[in-house]
Amino acid sequence: MTDNIFEDALTHLDHAKQYSHADDETIERLKHPKSALEFSIPVRMDNGSLKIFTGYRVRYNDSR
What we know:
alpha+beta
């Protein structure tokens, strides 16, 4: 595992494609999202401490 969750997902995608019926073009498109946003979410814990969580929003398609 790496520190980058997207890189981890790409590694899992490479392993999963051998079990998938998806063609190579589909797999390649999944590796390149249209946009990716990373953001921090501060949360006050029950013990009063502050913990920062990282959130992600990745878009592969912008049609509605």
